[in-house]
Amino acid sequence: MLTIFVPSYNHAKYITKTLNKILSINIPNKRVYVVDDFSSDDSVEVVRNYIKQNDTRNEIDFVCKEENKGVVDSLNVFLEKCTTDYIYLMSSDDIVVPENVLELFGIISSEPKLKYVIGGANNLILDGRETPVYKKQHDLFFGLSETDRFNELYLNSPSPILSQGTIIRKEALIAIGGWDSDIIADDYSMFLRLLSLYPRNGHDFLFLPDIICVKYRHHDTNSYTKTLRQFLMTTQVLRKYAPKNIKNEAIARKFGYYLAVSIRDLNFSAAKGILGASNFNDIALGLYYSVLLILKRLVNKCTR
């Protein structure tokens, strides 16, 4: 069976549509587990009313936390309670594509060796446009040998790789220790450990970007819009998990990338924060990678 997990926080405006699409996924005996992280809007009331009016098959379990502890805590609350073999992770503001989730579930449930299957995703922009999340760099990354991909995980992993759109065997999540309560960046940390423990594309996992399973909603509260926060979350993961021989380079590359993004966007407060959160070695090596990145983009622009 499959459990669809929805961590909820201040998405009262979106969560009804999210749950509507989830309930329409035609998988027998599926479960839906919603954990509200002490929302300050009326999410709890919206979800409770929705369940009363729409959950005719009693598929939804709803848990309300008594204090805000973050999404990683919600994920681990869910994992402790989950009783199904397969898990599909959602956000409370995103929209699933039911028939494609069903297809992805059919693939992983028919192949015992598969630990997880990464389906495709579209960005859902504020004006209603949709663009693909996964691009050429993702195809190149997942096509690498296991050794090369392991290094790229730390040095140059494509961003994002979404938990939304991915079906995972519960045993695989338990094998990597669930979600690390010390880490904020739940997707990056999870995939880093999954791809390290189960690295064989076509055997341990599949990357199927053409099966679009989710529409990933973009709005002003997405963490991806906060450059400094993204830098701090990513480097937190690298400081804990990156192998010693490449840790300094990995952190410096992220410094260079996010500093370049801040300068491009004229976001000088983010640039100041990135500099303030970094030590001398990070800055020195990171500036080198920042210049390289800017020069590479200029060359690409000139050769088009």
UniProtKB/TrEMBL annotation:
Keywords of the record: Glycosyltransferase, Transferase
Alphabetical list of InterPro entries matching this protein: Glyco_trans_2-like, Glycosyltransf_2, Nucleotide-diphossugar_trans
Keyword Isomerase: no
Pfam families in the cross-refs: Glycos_transf_2 (PF00535)
Domain Glycosyltransferase 2-like: from-to ranges: 3-113
Keyword Transferase (UniProt): yes
Family named by the database record: Belongs to the glycosyltransferase 2 family.
UniProt-recorded name of the protein: Glycosyltransferase family 2 protein
Biological classification of the source: Bacteria, Pseudomonadati, Pseudomonadota, Gammaproteobacteria, Alteromonadales
